[in-house]
C-alpha cells in the first residue's frame, strides 16, 4: 500500500533499567527527545511518595504505617522529556525529592508492596496513554511494570565510574567524597536488589549495555539504533 510509509509509527514502549549512576536518566531523556516519545522517571515517583511520607510525619521504617498511607498522595508526572515535572497534591516537588533526606529513605519506602502496587498502576496508566510511546526508566520496568515493552535495556557501569558520575551531580553541602558516594550507592543497590517485591533486576530479554567506557552520546546513539531496529522489524 502506497500510504504505509506515511503512516505514523506505532507507539513504542522502551524500558530502561539499572542502578544509579549508569546514565539512565540522561540517556532516557535524550532518547525520548530524539524519537519524539514521552519520558517517565519512575525513581522520581518513589522519591515523591517518600517525600510525602516524611512531610506527613510517617515513620518510613514502619512498613505498616507506610502501607496504610500509600494511596493518599496524588502524584502527577509530566512526561515531556524537555521538561519532566513531578507534583504531589499539586505541589512541585522536583527539588525536595533530590535531597539527602529523601535519598536515604527512598529504598525503605519503595520496598513496601502496597507502595509498589500504587506506583506500578500509575506507571502502567501513563505508559498506556502516551500517544507515540514512551521511554520509562527505573529498576523493575522490564521485569514487572511493562513486561511486554518493545525494547528493554539494562544499563550497568563499574562501581568507580558510577560513584564518580554521582559525585559530579551532587552540589554544595551534599557533595561527598568519592569513597562515601561509592559506599552509599552500594548500600542502596543492596537494598534495591535484595527486597522481596520486584527488586532491581535485568529482564531475561533485556539488552545489557555497560556504559563504563562509553560517552553519554555513544550510549544514546546505541539505544536510538536499537529502537529504530525494533521499529523496522515490527
Ligand atoms: O533512580 P533513582 O535513584 O531516582 O531512584 C530512587 C529509588 O527509587 C531507588 O533507590 C529505588 C527506587 N526505585 C524503585 O524501587 N523502582 C523503580 N522502578 C525506580 C526506583
TrEMBL record:
The keyword Zinc does not apply. It is found in: Cytoplasm. It comes from the Bacteria. It catalyses: dCMP + ATP = dCDP + ADP; CMP + ATP = CDP + ADP. Keywords: ATP-binding, Cytoplasm, Kinase, Nucleotide-binding, Transferase. One of its GO terms (molecular function) is kinase activity. ATP binds at residues 18-26. Residues 14-228 form the Cytidylate kinase domain. Its EC number is 2.7.4.25. InterPro entries: Cytidylate_kin, Cytidylate_kinase_dom, P-loop_NTPase. Belongs to the cytidylate kinase family. Type 1 subfamily. PANTHER family: CYTIDYLATE KINASE, CYTIDYLATE KINASE/PANTOATE-BETA-ALANINE LIGASE. This is Cytidylate kinase. The lineage of its organism: Bacteria, Bacillati, Actinomycetota, Actinomycetes, Kitasatosporales. The gene is cmk.
Amino acid at each position: 500500500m502506497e500510504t504505509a510509509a506515511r503512516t505514523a509509527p506505532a507507539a513504542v514502549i522502551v524500558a530502561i533499567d539499572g542502578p544509579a549512576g549508569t546514565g539512565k536518566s540522561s540517556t532516557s531523556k535524550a532518547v525520548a527527545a530524539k524519537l519524539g516519545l514521552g519520558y517517565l522517571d519512575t525513581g522520581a515517583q518513589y522519591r515523591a511518595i517518600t517525600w510525602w511520607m516524611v512531610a506527613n510525619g510517617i515513620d518510613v521504617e514502619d512498613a505498616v504505617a507506610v502501607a496504610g498511607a500509600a494511596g493518599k498522595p496524588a502524584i502527577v508526572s509530566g512526561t515531556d522529556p524537555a521538561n519532566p515535572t513531578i507534583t504531589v497534591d499539586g505541589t512541585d516537588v522536583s527539588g525536595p525529592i533530590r535531597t539527602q533526606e529523601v535519598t536515604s529513605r527512598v529504598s525503605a519506602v519503595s520496598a513496601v508492596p502496597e507502595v509498589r502496587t500504587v506506583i506500578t498502576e500509575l506507571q502502567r496508566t501513563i505508559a498506556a496513554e502516551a500517544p507515540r510511546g514512551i521511554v520509562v526508566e527505573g529498576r523493575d520496568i522490564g521485569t514487572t511494570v511493562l513486561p511486554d515493552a518493545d525494547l528493554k535495556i539494562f544499563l550497568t557501569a563499574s562501581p568507580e565510574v558510577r560513584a564518580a558520575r554521582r559525585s559530579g551531580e551532587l552540589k554544595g553541602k551534599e557533595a561527598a567524597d568519592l569513597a562515601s558516594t561509592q559506599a552509599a550507592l552500594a548500600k542502596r543497590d543492596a537494598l534495591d536488589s535484595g527486597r522481596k517485591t520486584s527488586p532491581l533486576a535485568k529482564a531475561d530479554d533485556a539488552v545489557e549495555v555497560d556504559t563504563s567506557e562509553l560517552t553519554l552520546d555513544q550510549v544514546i546513539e546505541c539505544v536510538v539504533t536499537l529502537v529504530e531496529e525494533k521499529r523496522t522489524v515490527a
